[in-house]
Each structure stands twice: as structure tokens, then as C-alpha cells.
């Protein structure tokens, strides 16, 4: 009896570890969604496709141009930041002050445009994305629980990205200006902050963080133009659960969603094929019970 209970406990812990690794990917993309939402109070539905496009750029650098993996990783983030900035300047800026519905339509247009461009350039065929080199392939065992080095890499990279963003927004003049422009645009404009430029930088940062998400999941899933679409829904679930305007909440929400889906998919019969449905259930439940999420700010409306 004790052996059976220990076996069940070990299995649950194993699923939690696997869920944390998957949650790291959701957390990265959720961070990107939160960065845009804080700036525009609108969800960028093209965020997943932007991450996918960046991942194809990394794949080209690594497999076609034979650039070192880690150098290509950093170069892709830099290219993505520049691309996100340019995208905001050329496409998003004209609708920056438009009604939310107009912005949503523009983002949906970006979704299909980026997906189609990726299909045109790289074809709608699955490609294998290389794993980070230099790590041992054998997993590490702890009391019957196996932890892959790549899983630790996923979790570690996500936490590093969060730490970098925390330091940037908390202790740098540019980060403080971006926070001010996002939270108090009118007051910031009066104080001389170029809020439009800060929004463009926010798009650049979101594109860079999204690129990290794509490059983290690509070695696990095959690379193709549609690979980030389910991930986008999981990331949205994470952002809503943690707090759509809170970066820390997005990361916590990502890990929680990853663990929850891993456990449910393993122990609930037939649930592995219903993970997208469970994500929608989580979104609806959070919006009904606690609309601000676990760490979101309460929105006060003066009447």
C-alpha cells in the first residue's frame, strides 16, 4: 500500500516538473502579451505569430548559415526587438488612438499576414529545431523523479528574462519612462516623455520576449508556421490567471497553467486531447470569480 502511494506521489511530482517546463514557455509568451496590454490595454493576437516568425529566423541562422546556437539566440532576440519596433512605427502607430475594436482587427490582420509570409518563405512543412548544445542528454534523477537538463534550461531562461525585465523597469531611466508612459500617458506627455516612442519600444521588448518563447518550444515541438497558435491560447490563459497587467503574475500564471494541464492531461481520462478546452474553462472561471487575476491591479471606475 505504501509502495503504491509512493508511486502515485512520484508520478504526480514528475508531472509537476514536466508542467513547469511547459509553463516556462507559456510564461514567456504571456510576458509579451502583458507588455503590450500594459501599453495599449489591448491584446495583441499576433504575438504568437511574431514569435513563430522569429523562431524561423533563428532556424535559418543556425541550420542554413551555421551560426553558433547561442549567438543566433541572442541575434534573433535583437532582430525581433528591431522588428517589433518597426512594426509598431509602420502599422500600429496609425491606429494607436483608435477604438479597441479597430486595434483588434489590425492585430488579427497581422496574425494572418505574418502566418502567410512565414508559409511563403519557409513552406507549411514541419522542421526540426536544434536543441541547445553543450548539455548532457541524460536526465537527472531525484528520488525516482527524472528532470531533463533541457527542462531546467526552459525554466532558467524564463526566470532570467523576468529578472532582466524587473531590473530594466525598476532601475533604469528608460524602463521607468516606459512604465510611466504605459500607466499615466497624459501626465507623462506633460513631463516631456515621448509616449509614442515608449510604446514602440514596448512592442520591441514584447517581440524579443516572444522570440524567446518560440525558441524554447521549437526543440520540443516541430517548427512550422502554425506551431504557436495553441501556445498563444495557453499564454493568454496564463496572463488572465496571473493578472493581465502584471509581468510577475504572467510568469506565475504560466507555471500554474503548465502544471495544471500536465496533471489533468495525465490523470483525467481523455483530457490530454481537451487541454485547449480546459484553458478556455480557466479563462472563463477567472473572469467570473476574480477578473483581475491573482496579481492584477483592481480597476477603480469613478461614477
Provide structural commentary.
The protein is mostly helical and 303 residues long. The chain is 72% helix and 2% strand. It has eleven helices and two strands. A two-stranded antiparallel ribbon has the order 1-2. A hairpin with a 2-residue loop joins strand 1 and strand 2 (145-147). Helix 2 packs across helix 8 (195-217), helix 3 (69-92) crosses helix 8 and helix 9 crosses helix 10. The relative contact order is 0.19.
Distance between the termini: 61 Å
Largest sheet: 2 strands, antiparallel
Q: List the strand order in the largest sheet.
A: 1-2
Q: Count of DSSP E strands?
A: 2
Structure classification: mainly alpha
- Please mark out the parts with pLDDT under 50 across 5 or more consecutive residues, or reply none: 1-6
Mean pLDDT score: 85
Summarize the structure.
The protein is mainly α. The protein is 72% helix and 2% strand. It has eleven helices and two strands; from the N terminus they run ααααββααααααα.
What characteristics describe this protein?
11 helices; two-stranded antiparallel ribbon; mainly alpha; globular
Q: How is this fold's topology laid out?
A:
Elements: H1 2-40, H2 47-64, H3 69-92, H4 100-122, E1 140-142, E2 145-147, H5 149-171, H6 173-183, H7 185-190, H8 195-217, H9 229-242, H10 247-267, H11 275-289
Antiparallel strand pairs: 1-2
Helix pairs in contact: 1-5, 1-8, 1-9, 1-10, 2-3, 2-4, 2-8, 3-8, 5-6, 5-8, 6-8, 9-10, 9-11
Amino acid at each position: 500500500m505504501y509502495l503504491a502511494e509512493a508511486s502515485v506521489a512520484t508520478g504526480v511530482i514528475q508531472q509537476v516538473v514536466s508542467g513547469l517546463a511547459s509553463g516556462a514557455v507559456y510564461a514567456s509568451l504571456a510576458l509579451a502579451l502583458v507588455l503590450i496590454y500594459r501599453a495599449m490595454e489591448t491584446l495583441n493576437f499576433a504575438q504568437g505569430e511574431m514569435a513563430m516568425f522569429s523562431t524561423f529566423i533563428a532556424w535559418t541562422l543556425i541550420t542554413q548559415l551555421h551560426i553558433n546556437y547561442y549567438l543566433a539566440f541572442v541575434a534573433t532576440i535583437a532582430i525581433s526587438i528591431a522588428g517589433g519596433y518597426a512594426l509598431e512605427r509602420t502599422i500600429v502607430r496609425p491606429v494607436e488612438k483608435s477604438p479597441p475594436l479597430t486595434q483588434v482587427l489590425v492585430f488579427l490582420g497581422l496574425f494572418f499576414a505574418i502566418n502567410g509570409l512565414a508559409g511563403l518563405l519557409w513552406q507549411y512543412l514541419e522542421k526540426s529545431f536544434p536543441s541547445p548544445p553543450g548539455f548532457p542528454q541524460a536526465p537527472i534523477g531525484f528520488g525516482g523523479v527524472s528532470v531533463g537538463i533541457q527542462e531546467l534550461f526552459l525554466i532558467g531562461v524564463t526566470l532570467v528574462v523576468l529578472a532582466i525585465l524587473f531590473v530594466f523597469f525598476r532601475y533604469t531611466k528608460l524602463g521607468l519612462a516606459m512604465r510611466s508612459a504605459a500607466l499615466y500617458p497624459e501626465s507623462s506627455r506633460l513631463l516631456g516623455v515621448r509616449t509614442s516612442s515608449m510604446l514602440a519600444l514596448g512592442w520591441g521588448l514584447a517581440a524579443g520576449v516572444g522570440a524567446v518563447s518560440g525558441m524554447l518550444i521549437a526543440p520540443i515541438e516541430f517548427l512550422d508556421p502554425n506551431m504557436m497558435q495553441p501556445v498563444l491560447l495557453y499564454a493568454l490563459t496564463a496572463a488572465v490567471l496571473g493578472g493581465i497587467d502584471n509581468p510577475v503574475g504572467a510568469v506565475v500564471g504560466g507555471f500554474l497553467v503548465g502544471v495544471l494541464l500536465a496533471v489533468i492531461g495525465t490523470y483525467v481520462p481523455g483530457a490530454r486531447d481537451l487541454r485547449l478546452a480546459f484553458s478556455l474553462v480557466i479563462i472563463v472561471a477567472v473572469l467570473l470569480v476574480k477578473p483581475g487575476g491573482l496579481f492584477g491591479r483592481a480597476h477603480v471606475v469613478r461614477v
